Amino acid sequence: MESFLEAFFPEILRKMSNAQQDAYCIFDSQVLNAFVSSFYLAGMLSSLLAGHVTRTLGRKNSMLIGGLLFFAGALNFTAVNISMLIIGRVLLGVGVGFTSLSAPVYLAEIAPARWRGAFTSTFHFFLNVGFFMADLVNYGATTIPRWGWRLSLGVGIFPAAIIVVGAAMIPDTPNSLVLSGKLDEARASLRRIRGPAADIDAELKDIVQAAEEDKRYSSGALRRLGRREYRPHLVMAVAMTVFLEMTGVTVVSIFTPLLFYTVGFTSQKAILGSIITDIVSLVSIAAAAVAVDRYGRRSLFFLGGVVLVLSLVAMACIFGVQLGTDGGAAMSRGYAATVVALVCLYTVGFGVSWGPLSWVVTSEIFPLEVRTATLGLSGAISGLLAFAQSQSFLEMLCRFKYGTFAYYAGWVVVMTAFVAVFLPETKGVPIESMGAVWAQHWYWKRFVKPAPAPVKQADGPA
Length: 462
Fold this sequence. Notes:
Structural class: mainly alpha
Helix content: over 70%
Shape: globular
Radius of gyration: 23 Å
Mean pLDDT: 83
Strand content: under 5%
């Protein structure tokens, strides 16, 4: 928005009006990078604390803390200088660091085994609902000349309030309550979740046994990850998080309006392009939620990997041919429309694979005694990489030009090969029986302890 740029980033506004400006470098600004990346740096640091809080205070209370911090951060719509903006972004990042760790764990622990993938996928689905609603607000706010940007930042108060009220009303998970020694409350919570007619005794017994095992390791969860028997969990926590960030989602999703502006759209049409990709994202994530427990996690990873590589390589070719290496050429309208189509294709690939499935896999595949520690570690790594990429992407686009997209395509090839070789299938496996998955894997079985019982597949479609 021009009013926002005029107030906080006037040098970018000057470059936008310069006809001789390299299109790749319009938004190359360290101050703008700091504004974007401070959110992710705060999220990284808070994830280290959020794992401990989620374990000791419960999943519900962790979400409540995150909502309160998010509410405080949304007050940056009152900012009068860049420092106030960044402080607000930091508070938002800390709030998201708490909720993005506790919410997937909450969903995974309350979901029936045969529907857990669909339940956990909803986290990413509603995350994208938020993107869509934000872009709708931004699209309308661009028509408000002087204070439209304040509306865009201020509406964050409403979802923050929903998080706070919602977290206050829901029960904590039976797993969390058992860990706190509240067995009667855990039984009541499980009864409320499964329904009054459900037989919960066997499931509660499994939860209690898993919690008793966890109490043997009530401290030092991060140090425990260094042991040989937890080697697979440590590798997967790091690898899945790194690969999620290296899909290029920071490039293609967070900076979508800037990409569309780079290929010749006006500011408002660039935001409209983002709305289109948001709709595509929601449809693809919904399709993944339906398919994940029917076809399994690995199949969707393979499908998404192929689509991501094709779209990124095609974007590299079009940017290279149309804008050239100096960014001085103008992209024709037909090729600009093709870029929009390719971003939508990329969004489909990400939406059916790494987008929702990274949350699904990391929230279900770890044993209870290291679950919050691995998720905290994953959140910290994710925040660090997102910070590094958001801090460097605009400069990277300015320096590497179209090669930026080819760089991320290479990463997708590597991560798809990793999934094929090392990621076990977890479709339909009860979360308390996940240890058997590792014990049956061709490679990881050399590290883990023998499973006490074979994996029991839940009822449902194959």
